[in-house]
Amino acid sequence: MRWVLILFCVSMTANVAFAAADPHWLMVPAALAGWYLADLASGAIHMYMDYRPCRPGNGLNELYFYEGSRVSDDYQAKFRAAMARIGPIERLVFDFKNHHPRPHALGRRPLGRQINSTILFGTLPFSLLLNVAWALLPLPGWFVTGAVVLLIGGTFAQYFHGTLHRDDNPRFVEAMRRVGLLMTPAAHEKHHATLQRDFSTNCGWSNPLLNRLFATLRRRGKLPDHGLEPS
User: What are the extents of the domains in the chain?
Assistant: First the structure.
């Protein structure tokens, strides 16, 4: 994973350099559009992860419904055994479900666990594709700026989600909340009240659109409630 992170940083640095080489006033609306799309992606993925069923037979239900102490040797042994049987995507799915009855569990996750899977399967391939596209096509700097902001928002979406379930956050998080670039815990609580609305976890700008999408899917029999918990 170390080399994946190094490659991602190099690729992103190149993209920032590409954008800086062609400044334009459209960079500002492009950056806002990129932030909106990152929020939209965070909500769409959140909706999918919440309602995607976990594969049975891996011990995830034992972890989810465990009644004893979660720092006990017994729980930790069960946790390690279950995590060894599933891949990174399924771990992420379990994290989404597990944090519903235990919201602060996500906030306690280390940064690497929150963003590594996103980088490996999502933002690194997209960033490398942007490198190649810039080399082969005359992409304008404003377009690259929007793409870079989308990549940043996408990479840290689960981290931003975790800050909504943690009391002690860096100052930049609080500053971004004050100007509306990140949503507040009170706004996110609307999601936890029903698990049927406000899935976006970056700034929440895309929640009106995703709420309509969720309502449409539910009317068509999609996203059944049994997917919310491991079976």
Answer: 2-54+90-228
